[in-house]
Amino acid sequence: xxxxxxxxxxxxxxxxDEGPLSRVALGERLGVPRAALSAELGRLxxxxxxxxxxxxxxxxxxxxxxxRLAAELRVLAVAVGATSVTVAVADGRCEVLARVTEESDxxxxxxxxxxxxxxxxxxxxxxxxxxVVAAGVGLPGPVSFRDGVPVAPPIMPGWDRYPVRxxxxxxxxxxxxxxxxxxxxALGERHAGVARSLEDLLFVxxxxxxxxxxxxxxxxxxxxAGAAGDIGHIRLEEDGPVCACGGTGCLExxxxxxxxxxxxxxxxxxxxxxxxxxxxxxxGGLTARDVGVAASAGDYAAAGLVRDGGRRLGQVVAxxxxxxxxxxxxxGGGVSGLGHSLLAEVRGVVHxxxxxxxxxxxxxxxxxxxDEAGVVGAxxxxxxxxxxx
Amino acid sequence: xxxxxxxxxxxxxxxxDEGPLSRVALGERLGVPRAALSAELGRLxxxxxxxxxxxxxxxxxxxxxxxRLAAELRVLAVAVGATSVTVAVADGRCEVLARVTEESDxxxxxxxxxxxxxxxxxxxxxxxxxxVVAAGVGLPGPVSFRDGVPVAPPIMPGWDRYPVRxxxxxxxxxxxxxxxxxxxxALGERHAGVARSLEDLLFVxxxxxxxxxxxxxxxxxxxxAGAAGDIGHIRLEEDGPVCACGGTGCLExxxxxxxxxxxxxxxxxxxxxxxxxxxxxxxGGLTARDVGVAASAGDYAAAGLVRDGGRRLGQVVAxxxxxxxxxxxxxGGGVSGLGHSLLAEVRGVVHxxxxxxxxxxxxxxxxxxxDEAGVVGAxxxxxxxxxxx
Lengths: 389, 389
Fold this sequence. Notes:
homodimer; about 400 residues; alpha/beta; Arc Repressor Mutant, subunit A; Nucleotidyltransferase, domain 5; five-stranded mixed sheet
């Protein structure tokens, strides 16, 4: 007997990405006969993945019935950051229904941090009850996606090869996918943000550190050891600030949340920035956000920090654009809050440095989902896991 | 009725990549029943793509028959360079049976150069007669693979959007695939060279110019406009030599065949290199090859040029390795003739600069096929074209 020609994961992905569809539309999109589709929908209904959603708008002829992902489907989405943890519950379409965030130092190690994740997950599940079928987790370091473990993550002492996926899968009794946080952000932006439906894009995250999510042909490219996208340690100049990695002159040591905070304190103390000096006196420390606020308020020295940082980031982005010729560059992470002056600087450098063929139709834009990119992407990765079954 | 479960292009690719296989082995590798395989082999035999090749070695039980690509299959493989054209004839397994090379300035434009290609092809076909089923062409600039045309190629005046594929297909009466020359070299090295069967690799060509072929998941990544791999114009320093692209400080302006020739003349005239000075006096000009010869003979200044160039190339390769985490970096093109001192310098920089996770198992090696990489890759691309039908 012929195997059923219905591509199940494509069917589920259509319902996730486009929402409820009539049986007729589904059949046309999948190019399968009515009977085969009905049989497959029956099976998916039995396992609780899809359901009927009322009559579809008539297109003349027989009225079709809407099919949608089951309304009670839930996925857990976790974003572990350097200094915080966010846990969200999303529906099958990766729309976030509830989320909670807590301060959390990733250096506390996996036992403490995962306990926190499990506790937050229990809380957030109460806020949006339903049937949890999968979970996705983003971690701030290189991850072996296949094994579901962090691999030699520089800022995560104690996490190396810790079985994050298997431990959470055992706790939650559902499949879990673990990925690098920047990959998750790239996928989130592609699912529901500014890069919707694009096949080839770079998501450059500038937060405490700097990293890049690479989406090629609609899939995350992770490299042979899960280390792809590690652009924070591309060296810009031989003589430069010392980096957390032990090197000097890395992009991240020049421009990142941490570097901006350091330079802001330097400026404040030098007397060249009255606004930053006031902030430092008031709060005892400064962050990238303070630099943005001071720059927007017309502080010349703070604006200079943003410009210099944007230029350096632009140098690296220009190289990546020459190298990969992507369809879009999205800039996200905390420092993207510096907004349009940062963007203008990056765009200027890229368009000056890369060849016109690569920059001609290249949008360089800010993340649309902001804080939420990571959890939306983690939810998306979780659904992929379930839908592939 | 069920469609035949035999994946035809996979079957043909197996015979190309592994050589003759018994029917039994083929059936096992493709996971298809004997009857379906026989039917498909019958069809492929009728169109002259496969044939029987005598009895297979016995594994006990019924003796199986060897199946192979038809011995009379031929593909044309063309490598258009900046200053030469090579045309080869290969068999279905992409083994080069005959080749001819002629000096040829790509700036003569497409009409002149393609006429030359057609003339050389006629000659080389006589050297290795058979049935030409496809042709592959590598061009020294960005190519729209889909459209079979060069796109805004910097060193190819008059070629922009010239219908190379369609013109040659009309002349030869067979399908033609046109690609960037560096992509072809990467595929050649992957099919039959040092990167055999690797899924993820970078092929860095340093010839007159500098470019990079990117193979990810076993396929060439071309970027959204066919411009991926354009690393020659990544800028290393603000103040640097003027580049052919109009910018300053590009990798290619620092280190390439053209840059080495320029610097060699400078050294010769400065009196700092007796060997290069002698060569200049004798021949009126110098090339990258002269630098290599002088360096090997112990000329200190020439060796310095190789070291500096290797360091600069290493800086760019280190960035690419951090970014993509490939499984191998192959260095090819004319300047790879500088050999192991170049390689040592590149390796040193990459291992110092990229994170251990990305460099731990990373071979950085010289091209094995040398001059032949481009035509082997063009032949491979041609077979893909036929086998996909």
